[in-house]
């Protein structure tokens, strides 16, 4: 037969006492009467309470207790009293007193001087003299009273806290009564059917513990979607519900022709400088450009056309052939519009893309050298700036960003152009989240698109809307070693919007 466990003895003693006395007013004193620690009794109380065999009432009390330093002062006296007691009638040097008192010397010197219990020989600050015959050690008396559980005034508590001689301690104990399911001895309920039960037939007579359908299961080890991917999926869904088709964005390396020239951006533009753009060393250039279209773009840049005066400079093919890491996905839009222009008859289209772009920028809390750009465009007859503003408001409101402002801007390939701002509650300011505009005729007509066809377009980063929606104030927290995995694991799809 298995020996009875100490816990079963404690449980039996507790139930027997409740059966006869009806209650336990203080679990601490009852634990002492059983000769066990309160911790052992507490585990039994919680188990019986869970089965409603006992009713427990939690009693919580916060008390001030002495620190180890204060306990020493309560036993030996305060530092200032020890110091005065150590000074002989003729006085003593500081070094002699420090050797005798140790760590209590510095504290005792300050307190004794403040109480005017000590003084110094004139002309000799090293010799400490007693100025009183006897001292009343109030600090020792206060500490002893507090240790004995006596009530002391609040001003004394404040002084002891200031000197870091006391700390607050929380005590928890219980008062107990019989519960609605009280029994003198509880049954041991079975939790599993074993092979031995099946062989012997005991399973027919077993009483099983109720199954807890509300219990939490073990956490499932699984991956979590990054906030950028959450917002990306939401944005893709918005585009699809608005009738947009996705553009192919599988070419990170782009030619300067599609990245700049086709967008009516002059070859001397500052964006083409190596301080703003990553150019490739190998392969440094491409020859795969549409010749007929290239000649039209060259003509527009040099001398204009389609109502434009152009830029009036000597356009160089070698500049257009340079390879680079694309600075925007608008290069993809240029390719798609050129392809659309070759399809006859013309049919209106809506396109979008979300992918990485690269710019040679200094990294700070709102800028990265590599980030995601979201691009959307609508190509149709008779589109206006009002259509663009309406589409942008619909798009961003679906994303949960209703605080929008538009500011006139300049882009080489759009006219009119607008910067888009949204209010960031974390940064407490308006943050630029995108750019927009209507593509210029000088860009569209050389492609072969019909007269009267307009294109409204906008681009924004994926990172800044994510920051706004998740309340993140530093873009670097979304990438690299600073990523907070608890944010990824615990955040809903978007904390502030969506």
TrEMBL record:
Requisite cofactors: Mg(2+)
E.C. no: 6.1.1.20
UniProt KW keywords: Aminoacyl-tRNA synthetase, ATP-binding, Cytoplasm, Ligase, Magnesium, Metal-binding, Nucleotide-binding, Protein biosynthesis
GO biological processes: translation
Protein name: phenylalanine--tRNA ligase
Compartments (UniProt record): Cytoplasm
InterPro entries: aa-tRNA-synth_II, aa-tRNA-synth_II/BPL/LPL, Phe-tRNA-synth_IIc_asu, Phenylalanyl-tRNA_Synthase, PheRS_DBD3
Description of how the protein assembles with itself and partners: Tetramer of two alpha and two beta subunits.
Pfam families (UniProt xref): PheRS_DBD3, tRNA-synt_2d
Domain Aminoacyl-transfer RNA synthetases class-II family profile: 230-481
Cellular component aspect of the GO annotation: cytoplasm
Catalysed reaction equations from the record: tRNA(Phe) + L-phenylalanine + ATP = L-phenylalanyl-tRNA(Phe) + AMP + diphosphate + H(+)
NCBIfam families: pheS (TIGR00468), PRK04172.1 (NF003210)
GO MF, any single term: phenylalanine-tRNA ligase activity
Assigned protein family: Belongs to the class-II aminoacyl-tRNA synthetase family. Phe-tRNA synthetase alpha subunit type 2 subfamily.
Native species: Urochloa decumbens
Main location: cytoplasm
